[in-house]
Amino acid sequence: MRLLRFLPLAPAMGIFVCLYIAPMLLMFIYSFWTVQNFRMVPIWTLDNYIFFLTNTAYLRVFIRTVITAAVATGLALLISYPLAYYVAKIAKRAKLFLIFFIVIPFWTSFVIRAYAWATILGARGLINGLLISTGLIDEPLQQILYSPVSVIIGLLCIYLPFMTLTIYASLERLDDRLLEAAHDLYASQFRTFWKVTLPLTMPGIVAGIIFVFIPILGEYVVPNLLGGVSGFFITNIVVNLFGQSGQWGQGSAIAFVMMLFIVATLVACRRFINYDEIFSR
């Protein structure tokens, strides 16, 4: 009879096992197999992991991916927190209006937005056109598009709403009476923010970082459209290994190394939430 209580979960668990667990398990097995004549052969080896960890070119792309994701996440945090604070605590009457504009990007496919930025940042795009029309430059800047800068711009355009809405939800739950009490105790604006607002909204900040940083690590479309060769992410290499090269074992090994890195990031973020004592100094 106890098993009958879990019967409603059977369809969802079946879908989860078939579409997630089984493919992940198969890819995990492939990461230890070898490829011969573009076919997976059940010869168990660690060569796929050793190849990735000793390949300087792949490691360089992996480090570039992490740095780009960290920079884009940091910029998103710096932009989103003031915006979310203004919407949640200051713009009382225009709150719904501003939230509407924050949500608008979700109405458009991120692929279309990436293509739009490729047009804007191109040699004949809006930015080069404005610079030429103002006389600041004589010829279009070729280094804007297909560079790490263009990748970060595209990533910010796509993932900024996730960070903003997550921090906004945390600020919205913050009781205004706590801020009023801090002011009644003669705390300055900065001290109120540092001692009250920031610690109480830290879970929202960490959640926003997770919602932005981890998806960026697995981003494929934006680096492919805006980055070119100099903006390649590790996911672009994984796709090439699974597709053109037929090296499924190496691609699976890189994917699982990325998963371990993401798990380590989640553990670090979870521990950081408990470090509220750093704000008591």
**What is the CATH architecture descriptor?**
Orthogonal Bundle
Name of the top-level CATH class = Mainly Alpha
Based on CA atoms alone, the radius of gyration comes out at 23 Å
Order of adjacent strands in the largest pleated sheet:
1-2
What is the H-and-E element order? Answer: HEEHHHHHHHHHHHH
Going by CATH, the homologous superfamily would be MetI-like
Q: How much helix, percentage-wise, in residues?
A: 55-70%
Number of domains: 1
* Class derived from helix and strand content: mainly alpha
Number of strands: 2
Distance between the termini: 55 Å
CATH topology: MetI-like fold
Largest sheet: 2 strands, antiparallel
Q: What average pLDDT do the residues reach? A: 84
Compute the number of helices.
13
- Which shape, going by the Cα principal axes? globular
Percent of residues in β-strands: under 5%
Write up this protein.
- The protein is mainly alpha-helical and 281 residues long.
- The protein is 70% helix and 2% strand.
- The protein has a two-stranded antiparallel ribbon.
- α3 runs parallel beside α7.
- The C terminus is likely disordered.
Summary, kept brief:
With 281 residues, the protein is mainly alpha-helical. Helix content is 70%, strand content 2%.
Question: Secondary structure elements and their pairing?
Answer:
Layout: H1 10-30, E1 34-36, E2 39-41, H2 47-54, H3 56-90, H4 95-103, H5 110-120, H6 126-133, H7 148-172, H8 176-184, H9 189-200, H10 202-217, H11 221-227, H12 234-242, H13 248-273
Antiparallel strand pairs: 1-2
